[in-house]
Amino acid sequence: MASDPLFLVAAAAVLGVAVILLMGIGNFGKGGDPKTANKLMRWRIIGQAVAVALILLFVLVRRGG
Which of 6, 32, 40, 50 could form an SS bridge with 24, CB 3.0 to 4.6 Å? Predict the structure, then answer.
C-alpha cells in the first residue's frame, strides 16, 4: 500500500492539511492578523476537501470499483 502512488499523494495531502492547521494554530497563538487567519482557514478547508476526495478515490480504486 505504501508504494501505491495514489496513496502517497493522499498522504501528502493529509500532511499538507496538518501543516496548514499548525500554521493557523501558531498564528492564533501569536495573536496574528485576522486576515491571515481567514486565509489559512480557507486554504485548510480547500486542502481538506482535496484530501478527502483523494482518500475516497484511493478506496474506490483499491476496491476495484
Answer: 40
CA distances from 3 to 9, 42, 55 (A): 11, 31, 15
Where are the chain's structural domains?
A: 5-63
Contacts of 20 (CB under 8 A, 6+ apart): 40, 43, 44, 47
Instruction: Write the pLDDT tens digit of every residue in 2-57.
Output: 788 999 999 999 999 999 999 999 998 898 888 999 999 999 999 999 999 999 99
Closest CA to 58 of 2, 5, 1, 7: 7
